[in-house]
Amino acid sequence: MAPATARNREHITKVLSRHLPLQGLVLEVASGTGEHITHFASALSPGLVFQPSDPDAGARASIDAWVESLHVGNVLPAIALDASTKDWPIKNTDTVLCINMIHIAPWEAAVGLVRGAARTMTAGGLLYLYGPYRRGGQHTSPSNETFDCGLRMQNSEWGVRDLENVVQLADEHGFGQPLIEEMPANNLSLVFYRSALA
Predict the structure, then answer these.
(1) What is the mean pLDDT of residues 16-28?
(2) How far is CA 52 from CA 40, 64, 175, in A?
């Protein structure tokens, strides 16, 4: 199991349990290995159906392997989805989850994520984002600043995002102000609800 997944999955599950509906379709964008989504599917309401996705074929194979090995019945086969594209292969969702992606991708991926989430859900739909953020233009910890520098050295288009920019982006696409919860390792959970048609 990935160390970060082991550290944060229970904490994320607790947040999701307070906000997710009891039934409906949950799309995870950038599912990675699949360890998060299989845990959520096992721990949360059995009325939820989870749709994992990832642009990487190796990741999709890992997701499907985790689902098969754990015998999780409410997770669909992983689909190819690049958040930055305008045409997603899924048209309707009740919830969109995205964990630890927008800082390890160009800003266009965050824009595409929020735009796509807004397009696939109706009023009341939920968008959940998890990861590190700057607040008021400042890092929330020295470790986040070091992490951010490392990301930008790998790729100048990556980096820890300003919370205010993400909130503004969501507002522009019809999401209300987020519910914000402090998480371990200086991360935040952001819970946005779709409030209007953009």
Answers:
(1) 97
(2) 11, 9, 22
User: Which residue is it, tokens 């965050």?
Assistant: 110
pLDDT digits (tens, 9 = 90+) for 107-164: 999 999 999 999 999 889 999 999 999 999 999 999 999 999 999 999 999 999 999 9
Q: What is the pTM of this model?
A: 0.95
Distance of CA 188 to the CA centre of its chain: 12
Quote the distance between the C-alpha of residue 47 and its chain's center.
Answer: 20
